[in-house]
Amino acid sequence: MPDEIILETRHLRREFGALVAVADVTMQVKARSLHSIIGPNGAGKTTFFNLLSGNIPPTGGQVLFKGQDITNLPLHRTAHLGIGRSFQITNIFPNLTVLENIRLACQALGKDNFRLFQSHRRFRQYEERAWVVAAQVGLQERALMPARTLPHGDQRKLELGMILAPDPELLLLDEPTAGMASEQVPELLALIQQIQAAGQKTVMLVEHNMNVVMSVSDRITVMHQGRVLAEGAPAEIAANETVQTAYLGGLYEISGQ
Amino acid sequence: MSAATNPYPPSRSGWLKNNAGWLALTLLLLALPFLAALLDGQTPANVLASETGNAKFMQGLLIEVFILAIYAISYDLILGVTGLLSFGHAMFFAVGAYATGIALKTMGWGLGQTLLAVIVASIVQALLFALVLPRVKGITFALVTLGLASVFSIVVRSSDLAAYTGADVGLQGVIVPALLNTNTARFRFYVIALLATVLVYLVYRRFVDSPTGRVCIAIRENENRALMLGYNTFTFKLVALLLSSAAAAFAGMLHALHQPIVSPNVASLGYTVAALLMILIGGVGTLSGALFGAAVFRLLEFFLDRWFGEIANSLLGLIYIGLVMFLPYGIVGTWRARSFQIKQGWDRLLRLLHLQHRAP
Questions:
Q1: How many domains does chain A have?
Q2: Do both A125 and A252 map to the same domain?
């Protein structure tokens, strides 16, 4: 099934008072693709992501994950379906160790959450998995440090690790490179690409760094003022005149493609 | 993908070895009444017969410490571990005390039935707090719980219910069965209170180390992230509330049996503040800190009052200010933080020496 649709939105809409942050967005995401959403600040990218992951409820429309309506699912249920979400602002457990951060992510979908009076260390499978994931995102050396002591770039990696830990099918990454030193960005992107390819996963990426998006994406959706302006392969987007004038407008330099 | 294996397998060192300090402290506390009696010229038989003297008096004081310790640790579980800021914790304690008083005095029930009543009451009040849990967070939760506890405080003070609660005077002269009479069987009561404290501490410590407890800590750290990972955080907070309420109500029951008076003061905001103070002194979120905090709190209060009389309260205030200034993470918390620094410094030194050794 090469063209299987994993995620679909139908007329998804969100208003904040008079402001329409997301206006009737209908789009489809193919399974096992790397699909990016770009757009200028205030285009509604993050709000759109929040609607997808259930962090805020939409004022209209539907979100379908593998054909199932997940529009009004409680926040804690989405992870159980196989959706992992990262945030623009680093969102970790600051005073716990790197390993414990990842271990908690592994434990979440297991069946041992209500073993009240047994040590968590008896449930070895989560800990072993956490070490594997820590190595995967390159944090094995720092696994026993409190997460808050990590440099920002490593905290971004940790957050990626926490999303990867339960082995989700769909990863929603909201500006994973935000605030990272520019020399660290290619490393993280290579990691994301590798994870996506090796694990047969679908990755949705919000970015506003064009160069980042152009080189890694299979497909790009351009949002502008809450609407989808254009959608297509990176080359098509780069060549698209509406995108050029309405959004890029000379402010961004597109290289590569 | 590298097949990483865990470089830090769990240690298999014995439980007794790890807890030698606690075991020694428990044994010391068990022996203390006898030591005090010997110093006082009494015999161990006098202690067992609950004869008046320093030994008996000291046991009474320590029983109060134990009761406060259970109460404080139950607050630490929801505030320090789970991060639920409740300002209604006095109610958790007072419900246990009043349930005991009413069951024994007004209803004339036996100990078994009374214990059952306390358990039921503790579950009901935890569920009551849980009712507002999904709707309010942080400081709002604090205010709502303060409101709930105030309502309870007003109800027990109301003259309409005087037949049950004794209104403003409280329940005077709770009839305590001979088995647990603190006056005629003080050493037995002392041992029960001590063992109850040890038991609550061990159960709580194990809980905090369990998969469930780890999630409670995660909720304190970042509830939204815990939700996104797939944890239904409400359930975990409910479990913490139930465990906290059970221990606090049991402490209240011991209090009612020991005094044997139930004053409406135990339902007041001041009693919540006392719990807060105890865990601040000991170290928020450390569990064992609550035990030390309770000891410092009660013993300071007692001795300052004895030595300085009227100015004791002002002195207490000054000492608390000093404690917060110089031990910002409490006794246990500060000690843990410092011991880590010391260990780090030591490690650095060793590494340095190692490098010097390697240098040509």
A1: 2
A2: no
Query: Nearest CB to A119: which of B2, B210, B225?
Result: B210
Q: Do B221 and A85 touch (CB under 8 A)?
A: no
Note whether A129 contacts B: Cβ–Cβ < 8 A: no
CA distance B343 to chain A (A): 14
B239 CA: distance to closest CA in chain A (Å): 9
Question: Of the candidates A76, A120, A124, which has its C-beta nearest B232's C-beta?
Answer: A76
* Measured distance CA(B336)–CA(B195) in Å, rounded: 26
Note the residue count of chain B: 360
Same domain, A155 and A173: no
* Model pLDDT for residues B50-64, shown as the tens digit of each residue: 888 888 899 999 999
Full pLDDT tens readout for chain A, 257 residues: 456 899 999 999 999 988 899 999 999 999 999 999 988 888 888 899 999 988 889 999 999 999 899 998 888 899 999 999 988 888 999 999 999 999 999 999 988 989 888 898 889 999 999 999 999 999 999 999 999 999 988 999 999 999 999 989 999 999 888 888 888 888 888 888 888 888 789 999 998 777 778 888 899 999 888 889 889 998 888 888 887 776 655 454 444 33
Distances (CA, A) of B342 to B308, B323, B335: 38, 21, 10
Residue of B nearest to A117 (CA): B207
Give the gap in angstroms from C-alpha B38 to the nearest C-alpha of chain A. 41
Which residues 46-65 in chain A show a CB within 8 A of chain B? 53, 55
Report CB contact under 8 Å: A127, B6. yes
Contact between chains at B231 and A93 (C-beta distance less than 8 A): no
Residue pair B166/B263 in contact (Cβ under 8 Å)? The answer is no
Q: Which residues 6+ apart lie within 8 Å of A10 measured at CB? A: A26, A61, A62, A64
Structure tokens at A206: 């919000």
- Provide the ipTM: 0.88
- Which of A150, A166, A182 delimits the end of a domain? A166
Strand, coil or helix: A228: strand
- Asked if A116 lies within 8 A of B207 by C-beta distance, the reply is yes
Residue A87 lies in a domain: no
Instruction: Residue A17: give the domain boundaries.
Output: 1-82+168-257
Indicate the residue of B210, B221, B231 with minimum beta-carbon distance to A96.
B221
Count CA atoms closer than 13 A to B277's CA, side-chain side: 21
Do A105 and A73 share a structural domain? Answer: no
Do A118 and B210 count as a contact with CB atoms less than 8 A apart? yes
B-chain CB neighbours of A166 within 8 Å are 229-230
Q: What angle do CA B145, B150, B154 make, to 5 degrees?
A: 155
Whether residue A144 is found in the same domain as residue A183: no
CATH number at residue A183: 3.40.50.300
Pair A145, A247 in one domain? no
Crossing angle (nearest 10°) for helices B288-308 and B269-282: 110
